[in-house]
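Structure record:
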Amino acid sequence: MQGPDRRAQAINAKCETVATLPTFRDAYRLRRCILPVDGFYEWKAIKGQRAKQPYAIGMKDGAPGLWENWKDPVSGEWIRTFAVITTDANELVADIHDRMPAILAPEDNTRWLGDEPDPRDLMRPFPAGMMRMWPISTRVNKPENDDPAIIEPIELGSDAA
C-alpha cells in the first residue's frame, strides 16, 4: 500500500497485525481482495557467500491481499494499491525464510471476499504438499530481466547470471 510516507508504502501485511494496525485495519475489514498469482520468490542466505540464492515457489491458486485507494497530494490523482498478507512459513518455505504469503484454498475465496469482518483463521500457512520450490538464477535480482526464463530451474553452483 503506497502513500506519502514510508509507513504507508508497505507491500506486505503480517496476518498477526493486519486487523489492528492503522495502516491496514480498514482495508482488512472492508477491502479484501484475492491476488491471482501462481508463485513467489524468496532468497536463502548461503554461508560463506555474499549473494543469496533465489528460489521460485509455486502454488496452484491465488493469495489473499488488501487494496486501498491513496490520493497523491501533489497531483490529486487517486491511486489503487495493494498489500500481500504474510503468515508463518510452512515446512517447505521454512528452509529458506520464516514468512510466506498467506494462500487461500479455492473453497475459502467466497468467505475471504465476503462481509465477515475478521476471517483470521484463513490466514495460515498453506499445505506444503501442494507446493513446490526450486532454485533459479540470480537474474531475478534485476527488474530489467523480465522474461519467462527467470523461473527456469538451475543446478545449484552453476548459476549463469
About this structure: The first strand starts at residue 12 and ends at 14.
